[in-house]
Prior knowledge:
By secondary structure, the chain is of the alpha/beta class. It has 3 domains: about 1-100, no CATH class; about 110-270, CATH 2.40.50.1070; about 295-525, 3-Layer(aba) Sandwich (Rossmann fold), CATH 3.40.50. It contains 14 helices and 19 strands. The protein has helices at about 50-55, 80-90, 145-160, 190-195, 215-230, 290-300, 315-325, 340-350, 370-375, 390-400, 400-410, 425-430, 460-470, 510-530, and strands spanning about 5-10, 25, 110-115, 120-125, 135, 175-180, 200-205, 240-245, 255-265, 270, 275, 305-310, 330-335, 360-365, 380, 435, 450-455, 475-480, 490-500. Helix 8 (about 340-350) links the parallel strand 13 (about 330-335) and strand 14 (about 360-365). Bound molecules: S-adenosylmethionine. S-adenosylmethionine binds near residues 312, 317, 365, 384 and 456. Keywords: Methyltransferase, S-adenosyl-L-methionine, Transferase.
Amino acid sequence: MVLLLFSIQQPSSSSLITSRLAQCSVRTQTASPPPQSLSLNPNNTNNPIPDPSLTCALQCQHFDSCSGCSHEWNLHRPLILDEATDFFSNLGVSNFTFDTCRLWGWRCRAKLAVRGTSMNPLIGLYQEGTHNVVDIPFCRAHHPNINAAVELLRQGIIELDVEPYDEDEGTGELRYVQMAVTTYNTSLPAAERYRNGKVQVALVWNSRNENSPSSEKLNALANFLWRNSGSSSKVHLIHSVWVNFQTSTNNIIFGNRWRHLLGERDFWEHVGGIDISLAPSSFGQANTRAFDSLLQKLHKYVPYGASVTDLYAGAGAIGLSVAVARKCRSVKCIEINKESKLSFEKTVSRLPKHVDSNISWHHADTSIEPFSWLEGSDVVVVDPPRKGLDPSLIDVLRNLASYARKAKASESAVLKVKEEKRPWILREREASIQIESKTTWEKSQSLPETLIYISCGWESFKEDCRSLLSSKRWHLEKAHGFNFFPGTESIEVLAVFKRASGGSVKKKKTGKKKKKKKSQKGDTLKDERQKKEPSFSL
Ligand SMILES: C[S@@+](CC[C@H](N)C(=O)[O-])C[C@H]1O[C@@H](n2cnc3c(N)ncnc32)[C@H](O)[C@@H]1O
């Protein structure tokens, strides 16, 4: 049985197809020993322990031509791991852990270009440095059912004479396809769910809307997929079929117009202890299992009853799972992509009834007035795109106390919702979702004591981390790596920073004493809350 787990992060929509770097994160106890799963029976002398570089090899026939993976060997130990271990060790975190996660078949979400001809369609990624699409029918990173759905799509294109997109001419019908797998089917035993995942297919169609002359072919293709692998076919592979209409000549994959065509509209996955809904238009982590591991780890760093701000929140998977796991007093999610709002609302509708948090989702740009989102929070979680944190947010995090003083002194209009006049802020607030707690809370003026940074961009993370530490307002307490993107040079990092309450950060203590202090600190928040707010049931 393979015990390794990996996880990947999704590149931005415009760079995903050309990038050789997929985001990756791995988890192990320490960053060095080979995975347990590689050890064969030690009592059997005819069965030597294999070399992990071979047993953890990619063994993918597309490796030389495809840009998706950048290294073939030692998938359980991305090249960057040694550097990451040293980096954290130099900052006083000697127990950096790395979760190797699942090494093959981990990618549950893939965006693929469709090129070539209707007789010979190519469905895959660009060759490094070009816009030549490489067919990758046997991709080892894809969940096997993504490969199966791609083959079905290929048959449909050929049979129905669907014209793949021609970038030079701007002609053709099918530009891209996004395949997302849900592995959450409770009618199956848990052990069988992953391999029986169902695929949500989103076809990116080169027309403005469903009234274009090529719509007949689009419907025929959707029906072909559904007839052959929909819920009433012999092999049920397809969860649903969607279309995204896109005619722009730039590299952006999706346009703004989405339509659900066939199958179940709602797509559910189960991560971090909650059901999450993911529309094809909203951000979703590509490595579902690894993301789940990361969330389980992250929960432990959030004190019970905390107020949490989740910046770069997508559809709120992190914030909402924390709300449930840590019985949060409030969770505020901030996300720039308005398409994630519906998924957030659906996820909220399935939260356990006993959840008693103030929960909100705001369609807003984190880089604009970031302090306004942080005030009143005990914990801030940031999960930015690969480029890292917005400079304005870094600045606020480095100077939280002085921002708080300024806000108080001027009774900043930003903090007074009723008096807010700026149209862009008002628009953001209109778009927000607010679920009130049954308990009435006093407005908190607290500032975050804990910063949890989830990163898929190692280089930007290092820069942001140094910048935060050089302010002397934060110290790095823990760091974990996750193999989100095996076969690439990326890892996903979960780093926990603590804020100095007064002036600069005290020198970090080590050993047993520190441990005791930490757990006391974790309890302190809860205990203080209980004293101040006896009506809040933890
Ligand atoms: C790496 S994803 C993380 C999403 C989410 N935390 C999750 O795990 O599903 C980064 C998210 O940040 C959003 N984003 C990018 N720039 C932003 C900004 N300036 N303000 C708010 N959100 C932003 C993206 O739309 C994307 O959903």
